[in-house]
Write a structure and sequence with these properties.
Radius of gyration: 26 Å
Helix content: 55-70%
Number of domains: 4
Shape: elongated
CATH architecture of the largest domain: Alpha Horseshoe
CATH topology of the largest domain: Leucine-rich Repeat Variant
Order of helices and strands: HHHHHHHHHHHHHHHHHH
Number of helices: 18
């Protein structure tokens, strides 16, 4: 590689030549090269800017974070703002990036809000919790999903109320994730709402509710899981059978024996494995 020529090409009027020059110089640690690449963070072309950020993100140069913050707050291009949010999460500079990312949760572009919510989880500062809870009401379902995921990272045992609310979200992905995370929190307070979720219109959400109820356990989940053995979707029935085996409550034995007649082979296998947990033949 001719370093001098590549440095000259960083100023070429053709954006594709500038972008190619960035790629040619990306592995260099020469301070002169780093300074030149930092200069491309002000490039008017999105492709050149993106190439420069990718080349510099691992160089530990504070000017990169400063540019990303400026871009996420001021740049008119949606793609540059959402990429800025993404890279701020990758670099994880909580001292500088936290407040700009929180502000980006209100950006007009959904992709920016999505990447800001995701980045706040990666940064890991609990100061973002209140803003992420507000994002549970965002108009975009993917923003809501990423907010839930980040809240689970930041406060895995403290956000049951927000997750319970999300069990009624209009988007099935949000409802499913909320149920799974409620299972991980072990929140007994959520059992009533998770039982209602066993009647959700979407089978994936019902599967998630079965998982959550099994993780939380307790006397109140047995009968609802027994009822789930009659779900129209085989995976719900199969998972309910496995859950009842793990919970080891004798009330499930008769129903599990009935499930051995299920039309689906996977459901029958799950019921059989569950019954083995009870050591039924000795009983």
């Amino acid at each position: 590689m001719d370093k001098k020529r590549s440095l000259e090409n960083l100023k070429n009027s053709d954006w594709s030549i500038r972008a190619k020059a960035v790629l040619e110089l990306k592995d260099s640690d020469d301070p002169i090269v780093i300074d030149a690449l930092v200069g491309r963070l002000e490039d008017e072309n999105e492709n050149v800017w993106l190439s420069a950020v990718r080349a510099l993100k691992g160089k530990n140069d504070p000017r990169v974070v400063d540019n990303l913050i400026k871009s996420i707050l001021e740049n008119k291009h949606d793609e540059i703002r959402w990429h800025s949010a993404y890279f701020l999460g990758e670099i994880s500079d909580r001292n500088k990036a936290l407040e700009p990312l929180i502000r980006a949760l209100k950006d007009k572009c959904a992709e920016v809000r999505i990447n800001a919510a995701k980045a706040l989880g990666k940064i890991g500062d609990k100061k973002a919790v209140d803003s992420l809870i507000e994002s549970l009401d965002d108009e975009d379902p993917i923003v809501r999903k990423e907010a839930i995921a980040s809240l689970n990272i930041l406060t895995p045992l403290e956000n049951a109320e927000g997750l319970i609310k999300s069990l009624k979200d209009e988007d099935k992905r949000v409802r499913s994730l909320a149920a799974i995370l409620l299972g991980k929190t072990g929140s007994e307070h959520s059992v009533k709402d998770l039982i209602l979720t066993l009647s959700d219109d979407d089978y994936v959400v019902r599967v998630s509710a079965v998982y959550a109820l099994e993780k939380i356990g307790g006397d109140n989940v047995i009968d609802p899981l027994i009822n789930a053995l009659k779900d129209p979707y085989w995976e719900v029935r199969s998972d309910a059978a496995m859950a009842l085996g793990k919970l080891d409550d004798d009330r499930a034995i008769v129903s599990l024996i009935d499930v051995l007649k299920d039309d689906n082979v996977f459901v029958r296998r799950s019921a059989s494995k569950a019954l083995e947990k009870f050591d039924i033949f000795k009983k």
